[in-house]
Specification:
It is built from 7 helices and 11 strands. By secondary structure, it is an alpha+beta fold. The longest helix is centred in the middle third of the chain and has 14 residues.
């Protein structure tokens, strides 16, 4: 939290998830909190959260108590719906999440092993390579994310690369948009499957696009690993 303040990033208080752990899932203990989230303001065109989180209350000693109160209210059925409705903004949310009572590295390795043992499924998926985010003002957006993600390596302007997980790249777009780039073992085999299932939207020598209508509007592209 101190580091977010040092980087001048508007943010809310930590909100712990207070429900008990579900059966399975690799949890090391059943007692809550299972994770805590911190919402950030000023990203992806947001102005509402940036203004809300820049108020004096968020800099006071009462802010953490406010986060715990929200967490308790979110466990109370219909009250949770009211709380969520009051916090919804016109733009997507960006938040940080810290998991408790779980070994993230071990769980990531376990799921990667399951994907590998399944051969990546019918598509032959290997990994998520990149998340591409389209924004109206990429220069401003890149500066905000740079302040958040430093010292992440910038392979090229507007593209951040991490030691593990997909890269994030920003590009010019008249409105907010996103697409996910995944690697597959064989583009030809993936194309054959998608064509048979009537899920292939477009294809090129180096990329396939799954029809967004079959993925609830998600723009998902496949490239050769």
């Amino acid at each position: 939290m101190a580091e977010l303040a040092r980087r001048s990033i508007p943010h809310g208080p930590p909100v712990p998830f207070l429900s008990p752990a579900p059966a399975g899932g690799g949890w090391l203990g059943e007692e809550p909190p299972l994770w805590s989230t911190v919402h950030l303001g000023g990203f992806l065109g947001d102005e509402v959260l940036a203004k809300r989180f820049s108020g004096s209350f968020m800099r006071s000693r009462l802010a953490p108590a406010g986060g715990r109160l929200v967490a308790r209210l979110c466990t109370r059925g219909r009250v949770a719906d009211v709380v969520f409705a009051s916090t919804v903004t016109p733009t997507p949310w960006v938040f940080l999440c810290e998991y408790h009572n779980i070994d993230i590295s071990a769980e990531r390795a376990r799921w990667q092993g399951l994907l590998r043992d399944a051969g990546g499924g019918r598509l032959g998926l290997r990994r998520v390579r990149e998340l591409v985010i389209g924004v109206p003002e990429p220069k401003l957006e890149i500066d905000r994310w740079r302040r958040l993600l430093e010292p992440a390596h910038t392979a090229e302007p507007g593209r951040c690369v991490f030691p593990d997980g997909p890269a994030i790249r920003f590009e010019q777009s008249p409105r907010l948009s996103q697409r996910v780039i995944c690697e597959v073992s064989s583009l030809d085999e993936a194309a054959a499957f998608l064509r048979a299932e009537k899920m292939l939207d477009s294809s090129a020598d180096s990329e396939l696009q799954i029809a967004p209508a079959t993925l609830a509007g998600l723009d998902l592209r496949l490239v050769q690993a």
